[in-house]
Fold this sequence. Notes:
This protein is mostly beta strands. The protein contains eight helices and 71 strands. β21 and β22 (292-295) form a beta hairpin. The longest helix has 15 residues, at 12-26. The chain is globular and about 85 Å long. Mean pLDDT is 93; it is low at 1-37.
Amino acid sequence: xxxxxxxxxxxxxxxxxxxxxxxxxxxxxxxxxxxxxxxxxxxxxxxxxxxxxxxxxxxxxxxxxxxxxxxxxxxxxxxxxxxxxxxxxxxxxxxxxxxxxxxxxxxxxxxxxxxxxxxxxxxxxxxxxxxxxxxxxxxxxxxxxxxxxxxxxxxxxxxxxxxxxxxxxxxxxxxxxxxxxxxxxxxxxxxxxxxxxxxxxxxxxxxxxxxxxxxxxxxxxxxxxxxxxxxxxxxxxxxxxxxxxxxxxxxxxxxxxxxxxxxxxxxxxxxxxxxxxxxxxxxxxxxxxxxxxxxxxxxxxxxxxxxxxxxxxxxxxxxxxxxxxxxxxxxxxxxxxxxxxxxxxxxxxxxxxxxxxxxxxxxxxxxxxxxxxxxxxxxxxxxxxxxxxxxxxxxxxxxxxxxxxxxxxxxxxxxxxxxxxxxxxxxxxxxxxxxxxxxxxxxxxxxxxxxxxxxxxxxxxxxxxxxxxxxxxxxxxxxxxxxxxxxxxxxxxxxxxxxxxxxxxxxxxxxxxxxxxxxxxxxxxxxxxxxxxxxxxxxxxxxxxxxxxxxxxxxxxxxxxxxxxxxxxxxxxxxxxxxxxxxxxxxxxxxxxxxxxxxxxxxxxxxxxxxxxxxxxxxxxxxxxxxxxxxxxxxxxxxxxxxxxxxxxxxxxxxxxxxxxxxxxxxxxxxxxxxxxxxxxxxxxxxxxxxxxxxxxxxxxxxxxxxxxxxxxxxxxxxxxxxxxxxxxxxxxxxxxxxxxxxxxxxxxxxxxxxxxxxxxxxxxxxxxxxxxxxxxxxxxxxxxxxxxxxxxxxxxxxxxxxxxxxxxxxxxxxxxxxxxxxxxxxxxxxxxxxxxxxxxxxxxxxxxxxxxxxxxxxxxxxxxxxxxxxxxxxxx
Length: 877
């Protein structure tokens, strides 16, 4: 393992301090210096020498050499041993592999202590950029020596986009891939580099569904394209299209998670990694056969001066503890881990996603992996699918600490504390710009683990996780498998593509009326977190999502308390108690601006034949749901408070949620690169005379500054019309309108986000829509209306109309008998109608003891539909 000199100067101040310390040590009397605290420490500097002793006056230059010195000293510790890593970039040619011999001793730790600016990198710099003849604006450079493949490229710390776009052909699925409408792909450069992506989600105008569930975004490589025959890579294709189905349960896959077929008439959402699609500033392509990198610079980028990085390693730190010989008593503090990739999705395995970054892998994985007793030959335990690997990973780690660190610019999961993690902590750290999951705790392959295999007493506190996942959008900032006594507390999670925190596993058998997987989980706590602007890309998740058995009793089950969760974008809940979620307590949280529920859902408990629901306590929350007290077959709801508006939430809960005051410096530790925002996704449109209504999913990665507005461009192939909408207005309505279009012409639309750094890449274009009057058929009527009162507000509930009429629903008009008219807008109004998910809105400013009547009418692009009167309701005194 070799560590090269940093690319840029650094560490001079730290080295100067080392020299000063040397001077001070030299002045001590003989014999005292040898016993001076810290004399066993190891010093590392970019300007050191690996032939040095590692002492303060003779620092080594590489982390592997420092590791050798630690191993020589760790067995004889009489105090903590600190590896002082000076400021600078330490480029690894191989992962730093740890085992039990790198551990401290009971009572004494090995501490890898960074300085401001300490970066452990698995990247290689790209230099030698030259313009490409005949392609204005396009540059290329030789691929760095030793780099065979990668999935990411960064320019001055900002992630670039692999060249992507819509397929230039229509395709029809076959047993081995697709038949295309033309041979266009066969003539592209390197067709076997292409990757088809299938975005989940539903409910957007003119956006076809694809994927393996609305919470997933699987992707499969193309193996070859010959003529009109597209052959997909195996085993990804079979693992995504041949999932077993129950013969006696129509539509239910044996794995019980999502549909059984990736295709089923669906088109891929887009294609990625094609030279031919290099057409937008910010896009790049690695031609592996020619060993050249291509990039279209963004405005203001100068490749002669820019730091361009290609991640080469898949792991930066690879901790290989075992149950017999765990890694223990080791800390990493003040270090940034960056520029690692994950090549699994580029291999024939692809990324056949199940949920939360777990995937089906291996030959015939579709027929056996994790299917256990539900099919002959199924591998046990049930739901033991393959987890995303961590770019920093520790297996069987005891008393392991990561603090005051940064996990950024990473291509897999950020940090994996695998099965057997015990008494370990992750604190005061930043997780951002990560392709997949942020922090992974434990796993799902040992539901009945014991001894050193149990994941227990792991604390994840005071971290900021945001702007992620960037590539595998079904990932989650914090994922926790089967575990005991873990605490996830006082974190801030914002601007994420899917759920914020995912807890538990193995609950899906209740879909076929069987009990969830028995497991060792108990006493886990998710408390005082601040989660907002989540589910920005996918649906069917939550701020905090839990499924499976959480403990042996209500007292020992999972506790979700004191969290503040608001501003969900996709369809889901604030706190989602999904399949098989037993013995969870949801108490004292502030929950608002969710799509269709604050706390849900209720499932039958199939551990017996009594017909009860999974035992759950929902108490003392401040929410918009407004459910009355009651006990519905084991789901106890009591003492909750209708939140008339967010400002009415108790200050004690709001102020205590998120990063604690003494730790809030982590919120100002930005590593975004300072660039224009990532492109929005899932552009949907519908037409009226002279205009298009447009909706989209907002950007996950704002890249160092908030999105201020969006630029929309409608094109008929000859002319373009542009329009803008502020981010604030779009968040309020969930849509905007582009006027000034010509009836009879067909338009596509792109959307780009803008911040103070500029305009980001435009989205992929929407489906083409012809502008015309859609007719005058009104929408149907809302149903299932009810009003749930408090002392000064009412929670209104209704189901969307079953029929759209001529145009989709864009909002609802609520009239109040006191003379007010309220327009209920937002993304949920757009997606709830086609999915038939319920709607909730709170009407405040009401007088105690007064009777009110409400009407609710759907609003479309062509007018207001019929109103339905909600029964008269008296506000409580």
